[in-house]
């Protein structure tokens, strides 16, 4: 496949940008310098479900952390919902992340000592502007939507990996974030649980228009997204847009991964 063919030219018109990166570079270290992201520009429209793929060390997680405002850029501009995280104080940035973004991680990052329901309620508890009864009602509704209404009273070690990740998704969406950021959300799951999790992201995106970025090594996971951005050496290498057929998209993704390296699993 040629690079021109990979950069699908069908007209896609995403909504207003929820994320835009312009000429963004990130260099780690002072003495030993690692250029993890190199003049990268990327626009993600509101309501998009996008995967970021690329070989190990290509800069995927760094890009996600730059979008989240967890890492400062070395140069260039990042905007999330029109806001440049660099313009915010540390405290404002923390509030921005807590109220406007939702995070999902490979290892779930649930609090072991809390129940599944308490984990899902956590962002509401931190915001401290809702009554306990309302927080419980909202967390139950989210859990039922995600198919884990029956394990709300369980501790984290009493649920499966797939249920734990669904709880983490519940925690990520309960406050109605503008943008969901997921770093290898299916990396610790078996194939069936991974498909369930991606079906949930896809449903949230289609029914509720939740803008989502998923970093993944896994072509099957990426095939649930509508667009895949391939990163190599810290810059955008190519992109694919999904038409209707998810399995055909999966094959197209594997072909690009063969070309640029990356597992595909
Ligand atoms: N805190 C850090 N300090 C120094 N170098 C770092 C740091 N974090 C990442 N790097 C380097 O930056 C480059 C990009 O790393 P990053 O984790 O963003 O890549 P990735 O594509 O997410 O990799 P993987 O798929 O293996 O998770 C790599 O060369 C990595 O070694």
Automatic annotation (TrEMBL):
Keyword Transcription regulation set for record: no
Secretion signal span: none
ABC transporter domain mapped to chain residues: 19-258
Pfam families: ABC_tran (PF00005)
SMART domains given in the database record: AAA
InterPro entries noted in UniProt: AAA+_ATPase, ABC_transporter-like_ATP-bd, ABC_transporter-like_CS, ABC_transpr_LolD-like, MacB-like_ATP-bd, P-loop_NTPase
Molecular function per GO: ATP binding; ATP hydrolysis activity; transmembrane transporter activity
A GO-annotated cellular component: plasma membrane
Entry-linked Gene3D superfamilies: P-loop containing nucleotide triphosphate hydrolases
Record has Nucleotide-binding as a keyword: yes
UniProt keywords, alphabetically: ATP-binding, Nucleotide-binding, Transport
Protein name: Abc transporter
């Amino acid at each position: 496949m040629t690079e021109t063919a990979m950069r699908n030219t069908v007209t896609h018109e995403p909504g207003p940008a929820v994320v835009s990166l312009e000429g963004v570079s990130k260099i780690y270290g002072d003495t030993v310098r690692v250029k993890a992201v190199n003049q990268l520009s990327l626009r993600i429209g509101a309501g998009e479900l996008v995967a970021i793929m690329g070989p190990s060390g290509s800069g995927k997680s760094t890009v996600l952390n730059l979008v989240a405002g967890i890492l400062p850029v070395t140069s260039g501009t990042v905007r999330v919902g029109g806001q440049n995280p660099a313009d915010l104080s540390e405290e404002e940035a923390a509030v921005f992340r807590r109220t406007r973004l939702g995070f999902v991680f490979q290892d779930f990052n649930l609090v072991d000592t809390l129940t599944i329901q308490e984990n899902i309620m956590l962002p509401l508890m931190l915001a401290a502007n809702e009554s306990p009864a309302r927080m419980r009602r909202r967390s139950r509704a989210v859990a039922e939507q995600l198919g884990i209404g029956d394990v709300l009273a369980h501790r984290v070690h009493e649920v499966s990996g797939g249920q734990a990740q669904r709880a983490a998704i519940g925690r990520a969406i309960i406050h109605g974030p503008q943008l969901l950021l997921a770093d290898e959300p299916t990396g610790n799951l078996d194939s069936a649980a991974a498909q369930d999790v991606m079906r949930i992201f896809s449903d949230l995106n289609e029914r509720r228009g939740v803008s989502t970025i998923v970093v993944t090594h896994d072509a099957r996971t990426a095939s649930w997204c509508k667009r895949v951005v391939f990163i190599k050496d810290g810059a955008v290498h190519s992109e694919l847009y999904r038409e209707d057929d998810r399995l055909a998209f999966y094959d197209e993704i594997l072909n690009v991964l063969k070309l640029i390296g990356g597992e595909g699993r």
